[in-house]
Design brief:
about 700 residues, 7-stranded mixed sheet, about 30% helix, globular
Length: about 700
């Protein structure tokens, strides 16, 4: 048995499941109403895939799954070796102690946390995603169908053409001295050049670090300073909906900031996206800046593959945690390759003739694993959309579905809820009869949005794969396999092959049967991150120290009588706004950087469209008066430090904040005030000054 919960020992005073959902010592009840959906469980609906669907499904019964699942956890090495054999390996992986192809230690008490899969095997993910298909005679198949921001603007690339584009860029980068292991930063919108850039890096063994093009110059500069790339790839600008964004200006600003910190980026390779921002309207620094179109097309369309070890780094992707500094999640090559390909195939029941559309941006993990690598490794045809779901109108998605005869559509609950608001008509106007499978990702999907997605978008015909996973997990962890078992609206259902979830209580003990608690994972899986860039200690303390012997996800979870998992949201200081992960500490530090802000405390609150919104309590310096102008400039501070997507929805003036006598802010109380649940504030007698609570309530709508 485990000996207690380490950092969670401070939570000893917690005595009910509901009260345990917070990892802050001073908080006795945590984020969102994580276990409040009990009522919905009572009258649980189920949806079973049709016989027609099941007749062609890769996995068509829970029994078939159970047999495979059992093999995957009883002998993971054998299970994954068999799957990995379908990929091309220049050199086969090492086996040790008999048939072991992986080694792991995820128990911080024993030794350093270390995970390896297919070590010694040499491969290349770009080769497996592109060359392998071309060499098998599938070069003429469409790899990417690109749909521009404005209807009527589109493009496409076959596997052969995509490979040629990737090779040209790979040759250019190599020629410019980019070597295996070097980091390359990519700050681009959803042009095909973005996945091309990722694949080109992978081809030469360089480590890509894509930064979502909605991050501010400061956020970009922080990420550049952390991984020190000599190359930054960007675009003159982009049109998103009716807006034009000058991305190169943001990069220029970021590069100046890093220069002040003593680091110089050698080259800024800029793709001229003339339809948004023309070359002549783009500021230029000779010597550093290079137009992509001036150099890349001159390079040969074939390029040697850099064979890398399965455990060589493929990419870094920064994500938010409970503290201020973003974490550089590091993924390696072999396990990630095998895992993203396999999860993609089974969770979407992928068949060769499918047309797959994932609405995610490559700036997030979904765009890495399920827009680029997973689908291309399967030789799929992928729709890439530059725009936004409601431009020019709320029917755009279904217009695109019909245009390309999309069969698998993967999006986020926030998009579903926002489209749902425009009613059924824009959906029903289009046929959508090509659709076969729907997917959801990024946050728990509320049952009413699930129903609308299922009934209206999918005409009660298409199973929904509600995929639970994280930047850190690399790929799906808990997800339906469409056709294999009944779906329940709002549940991600059952674990993927090789994934062993454990629900753990506040003392670090695994609990069984029907229960609620912290979601942990018991053993390593191939797609798991290996470390945090430059900070293995933080990797261990964040993910492996809270519950010893387990990987801790940061999510709350319930398991029902059928063994289905119900994700209930983050239990740490991370909030999930429209599927974008934001650390409250990052927003707070942006706010307190404002010269007139003395202190800030940020919490999440339920938001009809975004899932969660950002609610900021702000204390101003003595003598400063609250004003609308100040409110706007505080919000602007967050836009500059992080990006517009992290702008607070609400600023609540707070002459004082509820603190314990030891000075710790009691966020539990702030969450209740933000949610307007004023009769559920709980015990406030431990506050240093209980009077601040009434004061805050009085100021709620000011
Ligand atoms: C967090 C991870 C995974 C790609 C996109 C987000 C939440 C994600 C689900 C889901 C309930 C979900 C969790 C998780 N989450 N998918 N299907 N049901 N919650 O990746 O930015 O790393 O965020 O998103 O809270 O911890 P991310």
């Amino acid at each position: 048995h485990h000996t207690g919960g380490g950092g969670l020992a401070a939570l000893a005073h917690l005595n009910s499941v509901r009260d345990m959902f917070a990892l802050n010592a001073a908080d006795s009840a945590g984020a969102a109403a994580v276990v409040d959906d009990g009522a919905e469980v009572e009258e649980e609906e189920r949806e079973v895939a049709s016989d027609t669907f099941r007749s062609t499904a890769l996995i068509s019964s829970r029994e078939q799954y159970a047999a495979m699942y059992r093999r995957s956890v009883e002998d993971p090495d054998f299970f994954w070796a068999e799957i990995a054999s379908a990929f091309y390996w220049k050199t086969k992986w090492e086996t040790r102690d008999g048939n072991k192809i992986h080694s792991e230690n995820i128990d911080v008490r024993k030794a350093r946390v270390a995970i390896e899969w297919f070590k010694g095997g040499r491969t290349n993910i770009c080769y497996n995603a592109l060359d392998r298909h071309v060499e098998a005679g599938k070069g003429g198949k469409i790899a990417f169908l690109w749909e521009g921001n404005d209807p009527g603007v589109d493009d496409k690339l076959t596997y052969k053409e995509l490979l040629e584009r990737v090779c040209q860029l790979a040759n250019y980068l190599r020629d410019q001295g980019v070597k295996k292991g070097d980091a390359v930063a990519i700050y681009m919108p959803m042009l095909l050049e973005l996945p091309i850039a990722m694949l080109a890096c992978a081809r030469i063994g360089a480590v890509h670090s894509v930064v979502f093009a909605g991050f501010s110059a400061e956020a970009l500069s922080q990420r550049i300073l952390d991984c020190k790339p000599n190359f930054v790839l960007t675009t003159s600008g982009v049109r998103r909906g009716s807006k034009v964004i000058k991305l190169k200006e943001i990069v220029d600003d970021a590069l100046e900031r890093v220069l002040k910190e003593g680091f110089a980026v050698g080259t800024c390779l800029t793709y001229a996206n003339d339809s948004a921002v023309k070359r002549e309207d783009t500021a230029w620094q000779e010597g550093r800046d290079v137009w992509w179109q001036d150099v890349v097309p001159k390079y040969p369309k074939e390029s040697a593959v850099e064979w890398v070890d399965a455990e060589d780094t493929l990419f870094l992707l920064y994500t938010s945690g409970s503290t201020g500094k973003p974490k550089g999640v590091l993924h390696t090559t072999g396990g990630y390759m095998v895992y993203t390909a396999t999860t993609f195939k089974y969770a979407f029941d992928y068949h060769d003739d499918d047309i797959y559309w994932c609405t995610a941006d490559c700036g997030w993990i979904t765009g890495h694993s399920y827009l680029t690598y997973g689908p291309l490794l399967n030789g799929a045809t992928v729709v890439v959309f530059e725009g936004v779901p409601n431009y020019p109108d709320a029917g755009r998605c279904w217009e695109i579905v019909d245009k390309y005869k999309v069969t698998i559509f993967y999006t986020a609950p926030t998009a579903i809820r926002s489209l749902m608001r425009s009613g059924d008509e824009p959906v029903k106007r289009r046929s959508r009869k090509s659709l076969r499978v729907l997917g959801s990702v990024g946050e728990p999907i509320n049952p009413s949005a699930w129903r609308w997605y299922y009934d209206v978008v999918g005409d009660a015909r298409c199973p929904i794969s509600d995929t639970w996973w994280q930047t850190e997990t690399g790929g799906f962890m808990i997800t339906p396999l469409p056709g294999a078992w009944p779906l329940k609206p709002g549940s991600a259902t059952l674990p993927f092959f090789g994934v062993q979830p454990a629900i753990v209580d506040e003392n670090g003990h695994e609990i069984s049967g029907v229960c609620s608690g912290y979601l942990c994972i018991k053993a390593a899986w191939p797609g798991m991150m290996r470390t945090l860039q430059g900070d293995h200690a933080r990797y261990e303390t964040t993910y492996f120290a809270p519950f010893k012997g387990f990987y801790f996800s940061g999510d709350g979870c319930r398991r029902d009588e059928d063994g289905y998992y119900w994700l209930t949201g983050r239990v740490d200081d991370v909030i999930n706004v429209s599927g974008h992960r934001i650390g409250t500490a990052e927003v707070e530090s942006a706010l307190v950087s404002h010269p007139q802000c003395a202190e800030a405390a940020v919490v999440g609150f339920d938001h009809e469209i975004k899932g969660q919104g950002i609610y900021a309590f702000v204390t101003l310096l003595e003598g400063v008066d609250y004003s609308e102008q100040l409110r706007a400039s505080l919000i602007n501070a967050v836009r500059t430090h992080i990006g517009a997507f992290a702008a607070p929805d609400k600023i609540h003036w707070a002459p004082g904040l509820p603190k314990t006598r030891s000075g710790k802010i009691m966020r539990r109380i702030l969450r209740k005030i933000a949610a307007n649940q004023l009769d559920e504030l709980g015990d406030i007698s431990t506050l240093a000054d209980p009077g601040v609570v009434d004061q805050l309530i009085d100021l709620r709508d000011k």
